[in-house]
């Protein structure tokens, strides 16, 4: 079995990639399951429960609207309401929603500084709550300038 590696959250780093590790060891470190972002579901309690059930998983946050994240920062409101996660949630992906590349880039930098393992851009959500407002999610596919 692959040795446990220290991560910021103190858990097993299942995303570690080392070319000196043989194929079986590398396979044993990969997540077995992706816990996808789900609107009104992927809150911290749910993510922690999923981590208990499926240790070798990669957990995603609910989509965070990039404009809201930057607005909170500029108005000196705490970003923790948007970005906090428990250390044992690693590996964790923060999904951002938006349509302005410069705003998304700025939000992605904040997410990276907060310690997330990955940043993901929502371009597939068909929900009217996402695609119908602010032109992001699946509606981005209608805008060639955003591709």
TrEMBL record:
Gene3D superfamilies: Aldolase class I. The keyword Heme does not apply. It comes from the Eukaryota. Residues 35-145 form the DUS-like FMN-binding domain. Its cofactor is FMN. Keywords: Flavoprotein, FMN, NADP, Oxidoreductase, RNA-binding, tRNA processing, tRNA-binding. The keyword Kinase does not apply. CDD domains: DUS_like_FMN. One of its GO terms (molecular function) is tRNA binding. PANTHER family: FMN-LINKED OXIDOREDUCTASES SUPERFAMILY PROTEIN. This is DUS-like FMN-binding domain-containing protein.
